[in-house]
Design the sequence.
């Protein structure tokens, strides 16, 4: 730990020289500095246990406003603006104190990711759309709509087999979903076409 | 009777049993020392499952400054800095404990099936014990800062652990996007030309959730089929 120095004025740790540093150590020090700032800003002796009551409602209002702004931009077909608004909202969620309730953060974040994924699909940024919805699914937001989103992103990225798997997984959750069925039909046709085959 | 079984008397020195006991004890001590040394050497040879614990190292570094009597008070780390560092150490301990808990049934099944050897299973068990020791030490440190803080400490540390994991995942998304683009040979400049043209010919999505894409395309497809 010779490369680290504690700066009493700033109450944080810094690296002594600008030389190469282990990225994991750097990440650890960054996370610690952020936590120090949050604990000092919180004011209490020790960080309180996370409850819905001590969740930062002021920030929630800002986040909600950003979400509404993004949705309005989407409705006005300003999809790039919509993506920006949702991205700022996600950034705001990341600035919450780390000791705030994780479950509530997750709910907020899932709302933003779903909407940003839709906006990314509209701007034809399919990789970004895939990224967003893939994260949603990995966060256990396993819904037919999310599989449909990922399927559409995969389809336009040319990953037809993955798209088919997504549609089928969506249909496993909601067998009567007409949109998924229609998408799957198109995807299967495309796979046949790719293989030089037809029905 | 006395003549048939003559009893001979042997004179034994008082020191004999004492010498005997000394030899016995020194043998035991020698055995114990050698056995322990070997065990410690064997344990030292075991490769840890996890990488270096930076959080614990950083805490130890700050703690050495915090408890240094020669250092002036204004140069010492603030108490909240120490608490934050301890929380980060607790977060790392929770993360590692969760990983070990996840891996425990896998290790047990593999060991029972004879698919991993004693050394690997021992390595896992040692890591479990080390983790327990780490948590006990954290609890002790916790109590030294504030009495009964240990009761709420791990709940707070768990929230921090989950929130940090979520943030790490979110921040890695931009890098992941580049990686995915490379994997799928999908470049942003290409999307503007070739892929965009291809997509335009298919018809772009028109719904908020990409859902209406399906209906419009499905209709188009059906029309094509009819034609």
Sequence:
């Amino acid at each position: 730990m010779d490369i680290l120095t504690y700066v009493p004025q700033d109450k944080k740790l810094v690296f002594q020289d600008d030389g190469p540093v282990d990225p994991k150590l750097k990440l650890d020090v960054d996370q610690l500095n952020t936590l120090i700032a949050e604990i000092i800003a919180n004011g209490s002796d020790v960080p309180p246990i996370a409850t819905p009551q001590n969740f930062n409602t002021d920030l929630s209002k800002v986040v909600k406003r950003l979400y509404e702004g993004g949705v309005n931009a989407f409705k006005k077909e300003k999809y790039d603006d919509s993506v920006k608004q949702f991205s700022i909202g996600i950034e705001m969620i990341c600035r919450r104190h780390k000791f705030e309730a994780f479950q509530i953060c997750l709910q907020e974040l899932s709302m933003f990711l779903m909407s940003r994924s839709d906006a990314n699909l509209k701007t034809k940024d399919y990789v970004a759309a895939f990224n967003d919805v893939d994260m949603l699914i990995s966060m256990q937001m396993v819904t037919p709509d999310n599989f449909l989103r990922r399927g559409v992103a995969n389809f336009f990225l040319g990953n037809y087999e993955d798209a088919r798997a997504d549609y089928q997984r969506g249909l496993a959750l909601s067998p009567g979903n007409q949109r998924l069925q229609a998408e799957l039909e198109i995807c299967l046709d495309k796979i046949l076409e790719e293989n030089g085959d037809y029905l | 009777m006395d003549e048939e079984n003559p009893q001979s008397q042997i004179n034994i020195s008082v020191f004999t049993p004492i010498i005997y006991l000394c030899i016995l004890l020194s043998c035991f001590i020698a055995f114990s020392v050698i056995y322990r040394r070997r065990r410690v050497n064997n344990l030292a040879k075991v490769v840890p499952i996890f990488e270096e614990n930076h959080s614990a190292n950083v805490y130890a570094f700050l703690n050495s400054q915090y408890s240094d009597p020669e250092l002036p008070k204004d140069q010492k780390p603030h108490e909240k800095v120490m608490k934050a560092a301890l929380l980060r150490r607790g977060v790392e301990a929770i993360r590692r404990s969760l990983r070990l808990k996840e891996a425990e049934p896998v290790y047990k099944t593999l060991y029972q099936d004879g698919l991993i050897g004693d050394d690997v299973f021992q390595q896992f068990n040692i890591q479990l014990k080390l983790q327990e020791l780490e948590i006990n030490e954290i609890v002790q440190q916790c109590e030294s800062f504030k009495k009964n803080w240990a009761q709420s400490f791990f709940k707070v540390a768990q929230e921090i652990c989950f929130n940090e994991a979520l943030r790490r995942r979110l921040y890695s998304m931009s890098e992941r996007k580049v990686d995915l683009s490379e994997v799928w040979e999908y470049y942003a400049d290409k999307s503007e030309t070739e892929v965009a043209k291809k997509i335009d010919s298919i018809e772009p999505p028109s719904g908020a959730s990409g859902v209406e894409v399906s209906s419009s395309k499905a209709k188009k497809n059906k029309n094509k089929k009819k034609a």
